[in-house]
Amino acid sequence: MNPYRLPRTAVPSRYDIWLEPDLTTLTFRGTETVALDVVEPISDVTLNAVELTIESASLENDRGETIRATPTMDDTMERCRLTLGSPAAPGRWRLRLAFRGTLNDKLRGFYRSVYKEPTGVSRTMAATQFEATDARRAFPCWDEPSFKAVFAVTLAIDPALTAVSNTAIVGETRENGRKIVRFADTIKMSTYLVAFVVGELEATDATMIGRTPLRVWCVPGKKHLARFGQHIGAASLAFFEQYYGVPYPGDKLDLLAIPDFAAGAMENLGAITFRETALLVDETAASHAELERVADVVAHENAHMWFGDLVTMSWWNGIWLNEAFATFMEMLAVDAWKPEWQRWATFGVSRAAALSLDGLHSTRPIEFPVTSPRDADAMFDVLTYEKGASVLRMLEQYLGPDVFRAGVRDYLETHRLDNADTGDLWAALGRASQQPIPAVMDGWIFRPGHPVVTVSREGGELVLAQQRFNYLREPLPPAAPEPDQPWQVPVQLRVHGRSAVEERVLLTERQARRRLGEPGDVVVANAGGHGFYRVRYAPDLLEALLKRLDLLVPIERFNLVNDAWAMAVAGLMPLTAYVDLTARFREERDRNVWSVLTASFYAINRLVAPAERARLEALVRDRVAPAFAALGWTPRGGDDELTRQLRGDLARALGVLGNDAAVQARAAEIYAGSLKQRGSVDPNLLPAVIAVLAQAGDAGRYEEFLAAFRSAKTPQDEQRYLYALAAFRDPALLRQTLDRTINGEIRTQDAPFVVRSMLMSVYARELAWDFVKRQWDTMDGLYPKHAMRRLAEGVTGLATRELEADVQAFFAAKKPQFGGKVLAQYLEQLHVAVTLREREAAALSGYLSKLG
Ligand SMILES: [Zn+2]
Fold it and tell me: What is the C-alpha to C-alpha distance for residues 739 and 782, in angstroms, rounded to an integer?
């Protein structure tokens, strides 16, 4: 019996909720009637509630019986126990409750968001964020995903305001000077999906997708930024109806941009909430990366309307399936909408992030037993989203897309309006494919880590061998090494000999041999790039590949570089050999391959001593300059969107990491020109120009960027200048930025990420770490839940032995509660970096000095 689960002696089927928020006093009052099925005689009713005052409670039934109930709050368990004046017999009852609470500033439950109008006047709105377990802060409820019920919400609001909830409005009246807005019944769904937003809101005209009207909502003055979000919203909704073969489960779909929002977005059925950067964008002024983010997040949330909302995990251990699937579907939908974006190739970057975390001893299985909801909080990471989506993609490619889709449709049909588990999806996919899915998948889902597949040739035979990949030979104490069992690895091989041959091998044992090709042939393992494993080629095979990079598609080149970098970090390849390998990519023109190359240069930059930095800058210029010179500063007619984005990425790498004076000077000219004539610079280049100027900037530039941050006209513009404030080199300026993370100037939704980026900057990290140590408690008090976990990720950039010791000592004393293994992961990542530094520093120094 899990002590965190509510008893099922009384089960709710319907909530009639009436709420009256007051944006002036920042409080709310509410009443609710919950239809209950009492399954055995009870003398009390236990449900979730926290930070609420219950003013009255009673049970009644259709036979005219009324039982008074006395509430007792349990703040630790976030519960309310209602002791009944007399026992209630099994049957149907109605629980009536009256309560009140506060519109908090912690961006969870029913909370307030404060924003400035274009005129500079401050306004307040109220919004909700319930996942995982914060519905209980807005109304007393059975706040577990398996207690699905119908919700009928009524909001009593200031007549000047607008209210939005999960469903369409069915009635609007006036009573006692309030506007009473009544919403239609929802489908049977979980509490964490309920939402309501109240404020001065504007909406776009509706786009009709079949019978579903789709609108974008925002605070006044931003409606012109809604077009792009509405387009991908409409396209993905239509795509999902077709893919799932099940109609959209709501009666309308509203996408709402909220000025203060802790997460990226939240899939409330019919009323999806977003932080502004994830929904509102000026298409003509945004970079490809900024547009891609909006498209991704909107498609992701829409995918949840079926997968998560219509069919929901039974308990929080199932979060991974919810999120992994939505991430996978987001890729499919965006790829179908804009094939020229090559979304699955760019997904390599996300897969790489998951592989990187999953190479730690302190990684975790994708799915693990969750007892308390706090443990579930630690599931919202790259292992759930990106590793989860990667293994689903691997399975989809292995089974074939049509078979996979048939299994998904079967799953949704079988479990609609209900709850389901991982095993239910495997069963449905098994029915569709006639294959034993758990045998293939369980190793990937229920065991931590992933394999490295070593590929070598012995005469006419290719030898494939697998073992678990780890950056460190031994885990950090007190953890013990885990047994290394083989995975079932779908290995896609391609051999270029006289002709190209493809072969699929399900590697189930430690080693397999295949008669394939001849010595000297080019061999690609993980052909197509969908596999969630690393590949380590024998030296002769690696050299053959590097000579024929033209035979590889971009995702295969991406994986080649990314795996080589991982081998270097793990000590399976000398770092200097990796740096040498990067010279083979001077002619590279793919944006993603460049992203992994530059990410590795950033990581190396955090390892070199300040005295070595100039030499590393020269190396970066040597690698990047030829590709940038070939592209030039000015977009050409035939450039596609990815090429334009690559131009910006390379300019940034040269100007920041390469410290290239010519690039910095040109960036200053371009920026000055853009101020004179808005729109004169390609939107893909402008964010890079701003970043370059910050790195090279003085106090005057800082003031200029600070003013631009304050008066930004789009969420994207605001972000560019905000992060620029973290990227200066002058300590006095960096101190100013740090102060702004706790004095209210930077929103609490952004401040933790700004501090994190400073901890990762070689110019700011020591200052920032000092500041974090001193202000930890202040930040913890100010920022939303989970913010300190995100902020603390920055310590992985403090890659010296001395700083590592200081970080360990600080956390040993502070004992932060990040949930799960998060802290152990940060400490191991930091140790991986310090180990790499100490192992390779001398060799790298010699290598760099030889370059002159
Ligand atoms: Zn999601």
Answer: 13
Q: Cα(233)–Cα(216) distance, rounded to whole angstroms?
A: 9
Chain centroid to CA 741? 22
Ligand 1 center from residue 138 Cα (angstroms): 22
Task: Return mean pLDDT, the chain.
Answer: 96
CA 816 → CA 258, 361, 418, 787, 821, distances in Å? 29, 20, 36, 12, 12
Could you tell me how far CA 41 lies from the centroid of its own chain? 45
> How many Å apart are CA 343 and CA 230, to the nearest integer?
19
C-alpha–C-alpha distance, residues 766 and 68, integer Å? 60
Ligand 1 centroid distance, CA of 190 (Å): 15
Dist. CA 300 → ligand 1 center (Å): 6
Given phi > 0 = left and psi -120 to 50 = alpha, else beta, which region is 151?
beta
Angle at 236 between CA 235 and CA 242, to 5 degrees: 95
Is omega for the bond preceding 478 within 30 degrees of 0, making it cis? yes
Cα 255 to ligand 1 centroid, rounded to whole Å: 14
Query: Residue written as tokens 């570089």?
Result: 561
Outline where 571-658 has alpha helix (H). Answer: 575-582, 591-605, 613-631, 641-652
For residue 156, the tally of other CB atoms under 10 A from its CB is 23
Q: What are phi and psi of 481, to 5 degrees?
A: -60, 145
- Spell out, as residue ranges, where the chain has pLDDT lower than 50: none
Q: In this structure, which amino acid lies at residue 223?
A: K
Identify the residue whose tokens are 């070689």.
762
d(CA 258, CA 457): 57
Name the token pair of 134.
Answer: 């914060």
Residues 449 and 363: beta-carbon distance below 8 Å: yes
φ/ψ (deg, to 5) at 217: -115, 145
Written as one string, the DSSP assignment of 732-768 is HHHHHHHHHTTSSSS-TTTHHHHHHHHHTSTTTHHHH
| 469-487: pLDDT as tens digits | 999 999 998 888 888 899 9
Burial (CB count <10 Å: 0-12, 13-18, 19+), residue 383: buried
Q: How far apart are alpha carbons 726 and 768 in whole angstroms? A: 10
Question: From ligand 1's centre to the CA of 321, what distance in Å?
Answer: 10
pLDDT confidence of residue 852: 62
Residue 267 Cα, ligand 1 centroid: separation in angstroms? 7
Residue found by looking up tokens 């019978």 in the block: 211
Cβ atoms of 657 and 692 closer than 8 Å:
no
- Tokens 């005052």 identify what position? 53
Other CB atoms within a 10 A radius of the CB of residue 2 amount to: 10
Listed residues: CB within 5 A of ion ligand 1: 323, 326
Burial 80-97 (b: 16+ CB within 10 A, else e): bbbebeeebeeeebbbbb
Q: Is cis: bond before 132, omega within 30 of 0?
A: yes
Model pLDDT, residue 645: 96
Q: Which of 564, 618, 547, 561 is nearest to 590 (CA)?
A: 561
Q: Which two tokens stand for residue 120?
A: 């500079």
Which run of H or E residues covers position 331?
A: helix 319-337
Centroid of ligand 1 to alpha carbon of 304 (angstroms): 7
Given this model, what pLDDT does residue 484 score? 83
Give the residues across from 129 on adjacent strands.
109
Query: In the block, which residue shows the tokens 């994830």?
Result: 278
Catalytic residue set: 301
Collapsing DSSP to helix, strand or coil, 69 comes out as strand
Give SS3 for 723. Answer: helix
Secondary structure (3-state) at 324: helix
User: 3-state DSSP call for residue 673?
Assistant: helix
CB atoms within 10 A of CB 463: 14
Q: What is the pLDDT of residue 375?
A: 78
Q: How many angstroms is it from 297 CA to the middle of ligand 1?
A: 8
